[in-house]
Design goal:
By secondary structure, the chain is mainly α. The protein is built from 13 helices and 2 strands; from the N terminus they run αββαααααααααααα. β1 and β2 form a beta hairpin. The two termini are 34 Å apart.
């Protein structure tokens, strides 16, 4: 009887897991496998793919000067600023909101979270007006009135300023689900731990955060780190949206995702775009492993 019960338990477990396995395979494993296979081919979306081995990777890493001199450095700069910056900002805002009472905390959390839901819609309205290159642009108008500049600056078309604008907008829209998870984590830390910590010698809020808050919400910190990584690469179309072109002016804000879109959907070099996407997947995987090593459970 016991073995029969175990058999039915195992079967019910597989039944419950089946929808997840099907959708995970359909939308994650199959596309990844397809991209890896396609990266070894020359494919223009019309003729049948032609196997060319590692030629796409060799070309991408040794011959594509735009990728090595512009796209990859831009992606690293963007990821190092927006990823950790948005992550730290999410935690600090979550911690500060946790110090408030319920009503103002809820209102402010909605205000902070809302840009992550509407960034795509608002980007071409609010931010394009703020950084408009004529005298009607809010930033140009303010700076000219203050006497900082004598004539309008082309913020969205100048290679000198476009990347900085993209980083500002990305940080503004980075308070997403990871921020909410961190807020929930801070709010659910056991108050008795703080009391015990102060008895053991904790004397200020900074030590409280380091020795109690963060260790008590490691799952939320890990989730927030993963979401920060996802958000960093999913919002990489900001430069194209603001400048209105792909590639961006002089590749000033061109990231790997934009490079993939350029070759895949504009030039129709699907095999080459697939190779770039595999490189991006490897970068994301490495970043995820670093996050897991910092906040994952050792046991």
């Amino acid at each position: 009887m016991k073995s029969k019960d175990n058999f039915f338990i195992r079967q019910s477990n597989w039944i419950l897991l089946a929808p997840y396995i099907v959708f995970f395979s359909l939308f994650i494993l199959v596309p990844i496998a397809g991209a890896i296979i396609l990266s070894f081919t020359q494919f223009d979306a019309i003729q049948f793919p032609k196997f060319i081995g590692l030629k796409n990777y060799v070309s991408l890493l040794t011959q594509d000067t735009v990728f090595m001199q512009k796209v990859l450095p831009n992606t690293i700069e963007y990821a190092l600023i927006v990823g950790p910056g948005g992550y730290i900002l999410s935690f600090l805002l979550a911690w500060m909101l946790a110090q408030l009472t319920k009503v103002p905390r809820t209102i402010l959390a909605i205000i902070i979270y809302s840009p992550s839901m509407t960034a795509g819609v608002i980007m071409n309205t609010v931010w394009s007006v703020i950084f408009s290159g004529n005298q009607m642009g809010y930033l140009n108008s303010i700076l000219m009135e203050l006497g900082v500049i004598a004539e309008p600056v082309q913020w969205l078309q100048s290679p000198n300023y476009l990347m900085a604008v993209v980083i500002i907008v990305a940080l503004w829209s980075s308070m997403g689900v990871g921020f909410l998870a961190m807020l929930a984590g801070v709010l659910n830390v056991n108050e008795e731990l703080y009391e015990a910590a102060y008895i053991d010698g904790v004397s200020n809020r900074f030590q409280e955060i380091i020795y109690v808050t963060i260790p008590s919400m490691k799952p939320q910190m890990l989730f927030g780190a993963v979401m920060a990584i996802v958000n960093t690469f999913s919002t990489s179309g900001i430069g194209v949206a603001l400048s209105g072109s792909n590639p961006t002016p002089e590749y000033a804000a061109q990231l790997i995702v934009n490079h993939i879109e350029d070759y895949g959907f504009i030039r129709y070099e699907m095999g080459y775009a697939a190779a770039a996407s595999v490189v991006l997947l490897a970068i994301i995987w490495i970043a995820s492993r670093v996050s897991w090593s910092l906040f994952g459970e050792n046991d």
